[in-house]
Amino acid sequence: MTLKPTIQPILIFLLCIACVTVATAYPYDRGDPAIKSGLDYIRSCQHDDGGFAEAGRGTNPGTSWFAVMAIVAAGEDPHDWAVNGTSAIDYWKYSDDTVNPDGTAELGKMVTVISAAGENPHDFGGYDYLTTLRGRMNPNGQFGDFIYTTYWGILGLVSAGEDVALSVSWLKDQQNDDGGYGWMPGAESDSDDTAAVVMALVAAGVPKTDPSVTGALDYLRAHQMEDGGFNYGGSSSSNAASAGWVIQAIVAAGEDPSGWSKNGYDVVSALADLQQPDGSFRWTTYTTDNPCGMTARAIPALLGRPYPVLPGQTPSDLSAPETSVPAASETTQTATTVTTTQIPAEWQAVTITDDFGDQVTIEQMPMRIVSLAPANTEILYALDLGEQIVGVTDYCNYPAEAKEKPKVGGYSTVNIERVVAAKPDLVVAAFGNTEEVVDHLRNLGLTVISLNPDSVEGTLHDIRLVGEATGRTAEAEHLAASMEERIGAVTKKTRTVSDPPTVVHAVWYDPIWVSGNATFQDELIHLAGGTNAFPDVDGWQIVTMERFITTDPDVIIVNSGTGMGEGGTDLIYHYFMEEPRFKNLKAIKNDRVYVIESDLIDRGGPRLVDALEEVAADIHPDLFGAKAAPTTGTPQTPGFGIGAAFTALAGAVILLRRT
């Protein structure tokens, strides 16, 4: 329908009035219904140990940290938030998940929680966390090895009234040419880390007119999305977490975020519109993920309270924002179409059952395919379907041609509009995309099959499934059979092993993350003739430095590069080789620390058998031959923030096996 010319100016005028109304309402008052209902929802998330998580899930420090910040931002005392006499602060004082953390960022968060609660970080539960955090500062002022560990260190020390001049100097030097900041030196800028740096710098006393702050704001302005919100990078959709971070950074810099608008949509409204009737906040417009955590992130942002949140603070006076600059091209890119081959005249409709148990009928041979996971993309290319692919995720980087395909978002942040614009006749989704996204795409009339290769056998099944869905049954059978033959060649040799060595697969450090049971990596270790050094760890979890040392594995296998793909300096390998406390480990003394390409071992696709052969050679060089020592290069990082990278890691790049 086309509006009459006389009506259009009236609608524009009304829209402007609405924008002004939103601006005058910011920051929200503590008694605002949105804040009260949000706090009520967070209260429903509190468990018996005082921590926070969704019903049916175990409490965790991440969600619990944001919950305490929301409580204090709303002017309430977290000591008063208790279940059966155990308060939100008791959780931090006594829980095994929080006490004396190994990670540098986790130490910074611990000190901010203690300060927010009005307690003494020199003596909290018998630990002197403030002195421990100070000890993580390097001579150049950097905390740990990264930008994100440094801004958390600064926020922790600032909340306790400590001097951080040296760390501020180092952090300012990490600003990229575009004005933003990445998660580590040399990483591309992203909104989340840029916003966090702004808060840390301003909290440390850096003038709001300093280029390190104004340049960061310019970067954020340039990356505001069409709906007024923000994402962590790439082509992913806007989300509550990124919007919250940016709003708090804008407030820290003294500007009114309700005046930051794009196409008439401001960032405050973009966040507020994600609130649901029960008071919770969605992750994106289409997906609900960790609503307790999203709600706890949203409340300080809506109240105008940047981190570190401290008791007794009042919102700052805010000025109107400067004129916005056009959004950067990478955040406004739209999915493009490609020319494909002619649709064959002959195609027999096929009905398949996907990994979610849904029966899907494919009426015609798919000629325009969108892939929503890197493993899916690798399967499609292996079946010679590259020409038919018209959209992939930001993480689809193999084969090289996949990098040139139009991008349609991340995992839990699939950009629905871009998927639809690609006009696919088949969408190959994954577990990490969430059922909500899959259901929404189907409701829009798209044909979607969902994959969740939860094992080696599951990967072979999905290859055959995709072959059936795309008319490539013969090619899929040939590929799967060749993989089975190679797997059999490995297990034929490893069956002769009488005393399997203990093996750990490490995906990160600071703190140390390992692959436990019910993971692809655990299965590969066993097929390769080893035994998992951490068999009681469920999925991917943190293990303490002390436990790692006492476990003393025979073999250590680490992910390459930054641990999450894209190559570059092998940070995890260097950590294990250079950490003084590891010098007496068997794997270190016997030179049994190996690097494996992250994407090989983290994806349930055709290259999974390559990972098996490599792991087998690492564990049993006597049976399979030794491989070359690892090489290093300059840092090439995935960007998008460390939190987003771990989301990708746990959500879809590595798929948790169903148990």
Essential attributes:
659 residues, alpha/beta, 6-stranded mixed β-sheet, disordered C terminus
Task: Give the gist of this structure.
The protein is α/β, with parallel strands linked by helices. The protein has 27 helices and 16 strands. The longest helix is centred in the last third of the chain and has 22 residues, at 473-494.
Would you write up a description of this structure?
The protein has 659 residues and is α/β, with parallel strands linked by helices. It contains 27 helices and 16 strands. Strands 11, 12, 13, 14, 15 and 16 form a six-stranded mixed beta sheet that branches. The protein has a four-stranded parallel beta sheet with strand order 8-7-9-10, with helices on both faces. Strand 9, helix 17 and strand 10 form a beta-alpha-beta unit. It is globular.
User: What is the structural class?
Assistant: alpha/beta
Low-confidence residue ranges: 1-24, 324-343, 563-567, 629-659
- Major sheet: size, sense and barrel closure? 6 strands, mixed
Approximately what portion of the residues adopt beta-strand conformation? 5-15%
**Rg value:** 25 Å
Instruction: Determine the N-to-C terminus distance.
Output: 52 Å
Shape: globular
Number of helices: 27
* Average pLDDT, all residues: 88
Strand count: 16
Relative helix content:
40-55%
